[in-house]
Amino acid sequence: xxxxxxxxxxxxxxxxxxxxxxxxxxxxxxxxxxxxxxxxxxxxxxxxxxxxxxxxxxxxxxxxxxxxxxxxxxxxxxxxxxxxxxxxxxxxxxxxxxxxxxxxxxxxxxxxxxxxxxxxxxxxxxxxxxxxxxxxxxxxxxxxxxxxxxxxxxxxxxxxxxxxxxxxxxxxxxxxxxxxxxxxxxxxxxxxxxxxxxxxxxxxxxxxxxxxxxxxxxxxxxxxxxxxxxxxxxxxxxxxxxxxxxxxxxxxxxxxxxxxxxxxxxxxxxxxxxxxxxxxxxxxxxxxxxxxxxxxxxxxxxxxxxxxxxxxxxxxxxxxxxxxxxxxxxxxxxxxxxxxxxxxxxxxxxxxxxxxxxxxxxxxxxxxxxxxxxxxxxxxxxxxxxxxxxxxxxxxxxxxxxxxxxxxxxxxxxxxxxxxxxxxxxxxxxxxxxxxxxxxxxxxxxxxxxxxxxxxxxxxxxxxxxxxxxxxxxx
Length: 475
Hints:
Layout: H1 3-6, E1 10-14, E2 19-23, E3 30-34, E4 42-49, H2 70-80, E5 108-109, E6 135-142, E7 146-147, E8 151-154, H3 165-169, E9 172-174, E10 177-181, E11 187-190, H4 192-205, H5 213-231, E12 240-249, E13 261-269, E14 281-285, H6 311-319, E15 324-329, E16 334-338, E17 341-348, E18 355-359, H7 371-383, E19 388-392, H8 397-405, E20 409-416, E21 420-429, E22 432-435, H9 446-459, E23 468-471
Helix pairs in contact: 4-5, 7-9
C-alpha cells in the first residue's frame, strides 16, 4: 500500500456488512451508505477499506428474514414512502392524495406583538432558563392526514396532554446546529443539509413521521431570515446562536405503540462558548457498570433517550473536577465518545512511526455521525497532505495508555456542535492521569488548532465555501 493510500485507511474489527447506493433524499446527488440488517459478526481479522467510514443515515436492508431485521425493515419502509427532494401532495400519476407532506412553501407568518429585548452576550447565558428568540416554527402531523401547514409564530409554551406519547415512551428526537454572524456581515448556517438528513434518520428510528429533509432546511432558513437580523446583529461579528429542531410524539393515549400524532418545532436560543475551557477539557473514563450505547441500539441517532441516562455519571465526574465522560464500550473498553462529542486522538503509529488522527468508526452504529466530525475528517484528508494518516477504526483505552507510556501521544480533541473543536488536556482512567498534550502555549495542539481555524473560517466567512449557507435576511 502506498503512503497516499494509507492516508485514507478506515479499519474496523467487524466483518464487512452489505452496502447499496440510495438516492440522497435532499439532493439529486447519489451517495453510498452502508446498511445493516443485524449487528455484523465479530471477525478475528482487521478489515481495511480505502474509503471514509460510511454514514449512518441509511437503515438496514431487508433481506427477507423477518425474524431478525424488524427494525431495519420498518425504517426502510418509512424512508421509501418519502418523496425525493421536495414535498408533494399528489401521487406519482398526478391524482390528488389526502396525505400532505411537510411543505415549507406553505409557511404562514404570525409576528409577535411583544418583541423582547436582546440581552448582552455577558448575561445571555447567566440565568437558569435558556433565552430564545422572538419566534419559532411549528407543524403537526397525524397518521393518514400528514403534515399541517407550518407556521412561524411567537415563541412560547406548547400544549400537551398528560398522556402524550413523548412523556411516557420517549418518542422524541432533535437536532443541534448553529447560525453565525460572519466577520463579513453575512448570516450563515454550517452544512444544515447534514443535520436535516440526520434528523430524518433519527425520527424514523424512534417511530416518528418522516419528511423531506430539504423542507426542514427551508423552514430553518425562514426562521433565521426573520429573527437573525435582530438577535445576531451586524455589530456582533464572530457570535452565534443555537438552533434546535425537535420532534415529539403527541398522541394522547397510553400504550406502547408508535404515535399517530406528532409535532415538529424549531427554536433558536443563546448558548455559551464551550470550546476553550481553561487548561483544556479533562475527561474521566466511564464507570465499569455503565454504558452509553451498544451495538444493536440507537447510539447513532440523536434521541433524548441517549442523553438522559448519561447525566448521573456526568454530574459525578464534574463534581470530581472533570468536564465530560470518555465513554468506553465492551470488555475491550473501546473509546467511543467524549460526553456528547466525537473523540479524536493524534498519535504516532506504533509500527510505522507515522502521525495518525484516529477516531471511532461509524459502522458499528455506536456513535453519532457528527457534522463537525465529518467536516474535520474531510478537511484533514484534503489539506494535511501525506504526512498524516486519517484512521477510523475501533481502538481501546489501553492503546491510548500504551501510547502515552511510550511517548507517542501528540494531542487530542473533541468535536461537536456544542463544544465545537475542543482540546483535551487529560484523561483519568482507573486512578491514573494521562496527559494528552496541549501545545507549547497550552491552548491546544498544532493539528487541533489548525483544523479548528479551518472550520471557523468557513463558519464566519473567512473562507467562502459551499458548506457555509448564507441566509437572506429580512430588513
